[in-house]
Specification:
Elements: H1 2-27, H2 31-52, H3 61-87, H4 90-112, H5 119-134, H6 145-167, H7 176-198, H8 207-231, H9 236-257, H10 264-280
């Protein structure tokens, strides 16, 4: 069942890119657009988690601390992504983001939780690394881009590390839905403070924009929730390579369904990632 949860979460993470893409086409990629996206995305996600949890939330000092750190990382990642969209090679950006999301939680599990690093995990990591590198496409090279690459690598990886720390401390943690709701509250508060300070008002989105944001929030919120639930049963060094490889595979599959004609390299890379994902389950 836990592997099923990870497969569904990878599919949802792939689908969320569609909603994000459509939102960006309408609203652009400016700072206010990014803050507005985070505000509504996490506001909708909070409501979703609140409903799924039976209209109640639990709190502990540990969960609030972890949620605040998680929210800070999410906001830092959003800011770094915005800067990268303006100056960096987006293909390389994606590689750093995916590898960070896989390697940092894996390293945390192996080093700090003694999860072990058998041959199957080594082969899986190598295959996903190869698949990710194959997705590289030549593009513009801008001076100063390296710092954004490193930022998204570290920050995307820290999301997995913080999630793992919270979920592996059951005596201090709250349930997964309450934790995600708390994370969303922290992000919403930060975005509201920013908009009231800088814009002196809260940005109101159009019904069409709200629809895309709602789709994005549903995919992102439920996907992250399923990952948190799976973390209570599966080690981080197993989970995050599966999610990374699965997301790559489903993203390519969605592109083919939408008749976007991905390159042969991309198709081969997604098949390698899929093979690595299946390997990790055995």
């Amino acid at each position: 069942m836990m592997y099923g949860f990870l497969a569904v979460s990878a599919l949802l993470f792939a689908l969320q890119f569609l909603f994000n893409q459509q939102y960006q086409k309408i609203s652009g990629d400016g700072t206010n657009s990014a803050v507005t996206l985070s505000l509504y995305l996490h506001g909708i996600s909070f409501f979703l988690m609140f409903v799924l949890n039976g209209f109640k939330l639990d709190f502990t000092w540990f969960s609030i601390l972890m949620a605040a750190l998680y929210a800070a990382v999410v906001l830092g990642y959003s800011f770094s992504s915005l800067k990268a969209f303006k100056t960096a090679n987006l293909s390389v950006f994606s590689i750093f983001a995916m590898l960070g999301g896989m390697l940092l939680p894996l390293a945390y599990g192996v080093i700090f939780r003694n999860e072990g690093f058998p041959l199957t995990k080594i082969i899986c990591v190598v295959l996903i690394g190869v698949a990710t590198a194959m997705s590289f496409e030549k593009g513009k090279k801008t001076k100063g881009s390296l710092k954004y690459y490193l930022a998204v690598f570290v920050l995307n990886g820290l999301v997995g590390v913080i999630s793992t720390i919270h979920q592996t401390k059951p005596e201090l943690a709250v349930d997964s839905r309450s934790f995600m709701a708390t994370v969303n509250i922290c992000v919403v508060i930060a975005c509201v403070v920013y908009q009231l300070t800088v814009n002196k008002k809260i940005t109101i989105v159009s019904p069409k924009e709200f629809g895309y944001l709602a789709g994005y929030a549903g995919c992102n919120g439920i996907g992250n929730l399923l990952c948190l639930i799976a973390l209570t049963n599966l080690p981080a060094s197993v989970q995050f390579p599966i999610v990374t490889g699965g997301t790559m595979f489903f993203s390519t599959a969605v592109s083919i369904i939408r008749k976007e004609k991905p390159s042969a390299r991309t198709v081969i890379a997604s098949l390698i990632a899929f093979a690595a994902t299946v390997l990790m389950m055995f």
